[in-house]
Every structure is written in C-alpha cells, then in structure tokens.
Amino acid sequence: MKRYSLLALSVLASLSLMTACTNKTTDSTTSSSSQTTEETTTSSSSSQQVVVKQASIDIEEIQQGDFTSLIGTWANSQGGSLTFDTSGLVTPGFSLAGTFSNQQGILLADALLESGAEGFVLYFVPKGTVLPQDLFEEGSDTSDSNQDRIVFANGPLYGSGLDSYYRQSTSASSDTDPLKNTDTGVILESGPVTIEYANSILGDKGWTVIEGNYTRTEAIPYNLIQGTDGSHYTVYQNGVILDATYTIIYQP
Q1: Sorted alphabetically, which PROSITE patterns does this protein's record hold (predicted)?
Q2: What is the strand order of the sheet 72-75 is part of?
Q3: Rounded to whole angstroms, how far apart are CA atoms 177 and 240?
Q4: Mean per-residue pLDDT, 202-224
C-alpha cells in the first residue's frame, strides 16, 4: 500500500473537500431543478392544468382498427342509438364487417344485422365535412356539419329523411370545465367501481388502476387505468374519460 507524506495528504484532503463542496452545490442545484420540474408535472397531472380537447372522428385510426374516437353512444332524432367501445360497434344485433372505404374524407363501413337480414352502410363523417353530392340519389346533405356524425343507410342517400346519429352527451355547457363538472350524474368512489365503469364504456380489457388520487382533496379526483393491451386512460370521478393524449373520448 502506498504511503503519502503529511503534505501530500493535506493537499489531497483539500482537493477532496473542494470537490465535495462543488458536487454538493451541483447536486443541490440539480435536485432543486428536478424538484421544481416534478412539482410542475405533478401539479399538471393532479389538477390537469393541460389543454384537453374533445375527441373527433379519426378516419385513419378507425381503418387501423382503433375505435377510440367513436367511443360512446350516438343517437338519432328517432330514438335510435349506436354504441361503440374500443373494440368497435357493440350495439346488440349489429356488427361491423371490417371493410372500410375512404371517400373524399368520409369513411364508409359495411355493417351487418346479426339476424341475417340484409346489411347496411355506416358513413363516419368528421365535423367540418359535408357529405359529397355524388353520394346522393336525391337532395343533398342535411346533417349538421358542425358536429361529428354517423349516417345510417341501407340504400342510396336522400337529403330528406337522412338518418344521422350524433355523439350523445348530457354534460354541462362548454363554459364548464368538463373535468370539474359535478353534474354528470356519475360519482366513482373506488378503484373497483372505476374498473366496472371502464368495462361498460371502453370494453373489458383487463383494466387495472395504476395510479389514483381519490384521497387528495387538492386535486381533481381521477384514476389512471391500464389495459392488458398496454392502453392507458384517465377516468375522472365524474365519469369523464381521457385518452393518453389528454383528449376527452367520453363524457356522461
């Protein structure tokens, strides 16, 4: 083992002390910076101080088998309804054939009646898009182009009597923060209740709660859930569901 002179040891000790002080200062600064970032992130996560957006029909995703942008119930003026979860159309008696055709920004999907009756076509129309005139046998698009809609047809389209389905929501007006809205009629009290709720809206994907803050009164109550397919959704205590991009894909 090497032996150092007293002077050498003194110099070595001084250098070590300077290095330690420098590292401590650096570590303290880094720690402070990291803590600030973490607090900002936590604050954003817990209070959702992020820009949330409303889901709109995503034609490309649907063609790839991702039905997230359609999740929920769609209703027409006659009281008919179509319900979608993450697996697709789940309205009893109906099913999608799995064949899609993109025509001028509108997605046509073949659908079937489980009774064996003749099939029909669903037109998925994103808001801001008007059904092209060449799709009509008579008349023109009378649906509300300011909204996403699904048009049901078992033959040529006619402007009069166009059967249009709109996304159903009983949530408060747009002036109310959807994450803080307490008038949704939904109050999820625990993780198991959240999972049961998720099954009814998103479909059963073996959901587990991987994060939650129901006990933190300073934050908007939510549970972060994960499916066996790796998908993640944030389910708020008031029933509002966001996907991983902070897009509202369901409002009760």
Answers
A1: PROKAR_LIPOPROTEIN
A2: 88-89, 81-85, 72-75, 163-167, 149-153, 120-125, 106-113, 94-103
A3: 11
A4: 89
Model confidence over 119-148: pLDDT tens digits? 789 999 999 999 999 889 899 999 999 999
Q: Assess whether 163 and 66 both reside in one domain.
A: yes
For the record, the structure tokens of 29 come out as 């600064």
Q: State whether 184 and 229 are in the same domain.
A: yes
Chain mean pLDDT for the chain? 80
Residue 32 in tokens: 């402070």
Looking at the chain, the whole-number percentage of residues with pLDDT higher than 70 is 77
Specify if 4 maps to a domain: no
Contacts of 174 (CB under 8 A, 6+ apart): none
The total number of structural domains that make up the chain: 2
Collect all residues with Cβ–Cβ distance below 8 Å to 207 and sequence separation of at least 6.
195, 198, 199, 225, 226, 227
Per-residue b or e along 8-41, where b marks 16 or more CB atoms closer than 10 Å to that residue's CB:
eeeeeeeeeeeeeeeeeeeeeeeeeeeeeeeeee
Of 176, 173, 141, 180, whose CA–CA distance to 157 is shortest?
A: 141
Contact 170, 164 (CB under 8 A): no
Examine residue 41 and state whether it is found in any structural domain, yes or no.
Answer: no
User: Do 75 and 58 touch, CB atoms closer than 8 A?
Assistant: no
What per-residue string of b and e applies to 162-199 under the rule 16 or more CB within 10 Å gives b? bbbbbbebebeeeeeebbebeebebebeebeebbebbe
Q: Are residues 136 and 182 in the same domain?
A: no
Residues 77 and 132 in one domain: yes
